[in-house]
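Predicting holo structure, magnesium ion bound.
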Amino acid sequence: MSQVLPGIGVGMGSASGPVARMAPPPQLPAPRPVTDPEADTAALRRALAALVADLENRATRAPEGPAADVLFAQAQMASDPTLAEQAGEAVHRGADPVHALSATFDGFRARLLAAGGYFAERATDLDDLRDRAVCHLLQLPMPGLPDPGHPHVVVADDLAPADTAFLDPARVLALVTVRGGPTSHTAILAKALGLPAVVGCPSAADLKDGQKVLVHDGTVEVDPSPEAVFEAARREERRRGRAAAAHGPGRTADGHPVALLVNLGAAHELPRAAAADAEGVGLFRTEFLYLDRTEPPTRDEQTVAYRGVFNAFSGRRVVVRTLDAGADKPLPFVTAPDEENPALGVRGLRTAVRDPGLLDTQLAAVAEAARGSKADVWVMAPMVSLPDEAAEFAARVRSYGLPVAGAMVEVPAAALRADQLAQVCDFFSIGTNDLAQYTFAADRTLGALAELLDPWQPALLDLVATTARAASAFDRPVGVCGEAASDPGLALVLAGLGVGSLSMAPACLPEVRATLAAHSYAQCQDMANAARRAPDAATARAEVRRRMI
Ligand code: PEP
Ligand code: MG
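Done. Tokens:
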């Protein structure tokens, strides 16, 4: 009898194969007395130096991308001099190097957890650094990805970037993690690599090496029947075949247009995004220009970066989102460190009231870059709550000679008053990640709240419908740029609700395009109605699945 373990489905498709577990972290030996603190401190410093060298080496060898970026960031964390200093002080207080190092990393970790949100999600990075540093110190083999020599499903407690950097998509069939949420590294990398993945699956802790599993639809089926594996493989083959065959602008089977666009959030993503068969950029997250800095980028720096994107998308649409700082995207020079509840604080467009110069510099740079380019540049504000905010933003954008100004709809108040917003701005882009967070009062970074954050929640779809109706009444384009857009079934629902464009990671485009092309607009509308009538997210998803070809 097979057993089905529930989790949170991220990534794409399905796969089956034998489990290969990640090596467990090193066990700490019993504490030993310190007889030569200088020698022990030197050993500790050598271990940290070896850790940094190892991370830098891996980062240099990793393909350019998110994994390499995070490895470099980890190397930076590990070379923080306060780490070596505090561990050295612990040795001088009598702790042996292994326990001194471990306790110091744990102290840093506790501070990250206390900071909450995005920082808390990075706690796994520090666990990984601690384990690697201890292995260097004890000269143990490094913990990391298994390599059983054949295709396998990786099962881990949680994956850290240092592991995922060397993940070989030719050998790894799927990823399963015990912990982690929808925004964990595993989730992001699975999407980028087009791998099936299940995160937040507590029962996966009991899986054994070599045990056969089938990973699909957010579940891990243990010892699946040959029929279930065959059926999943057939579905997967059809999925891949269909995705590979579809090209060109997004359309339903009867020609209703749904523009397919890419999300762009880091400089290294540009070549892949520009090469994608997409009609443009639906969400250019400009935050990356401001990250890891102590002061904002200058106007000239920004102009160069924006020009690079506009040139790469010459002749296509580029929707630039102005700086969205705060909460899950904190910036030291923008966000106040003492807000008790940063997700409800001065974030997104609200920061422009506190620091208008920041927005003006950015708009001036966008305008200058747009002037010499053939891209169709649209500009939108994040976290708009009131029609007046949207009006003021649109006026400011237009004062820089940028003709198309829009609002992100990611606060329920904006969705409920979309008819008023539509009268003062030119388009809407619905950010379902934040819209779910604020509709359900559920922190978007918490894996434990995944059910509330599920974009299939009918209440969330109601707000999308309200927004799309208002947009249509005032003849304003409306798109979705949150993660919901990359779910093929949900893409049909969104199209049926009247959404005219979907923006997503480039790897997700082919399947969404193919799914749209296989269904008529009337079928999309029928699915949208069925999903909204459903009492909960699971039923909505099941109702749509049942109707899909
Ligand atoms: C969203 O909230 O859905 C969105 C697209 O913006 P971000 O994820 O960058 O907050
Ligand atoms: Mg958002």
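The pocket of magnesium ion (ligand 2) is lined by residues 382, 410, 431, 433-434 (CB under 6 Å).
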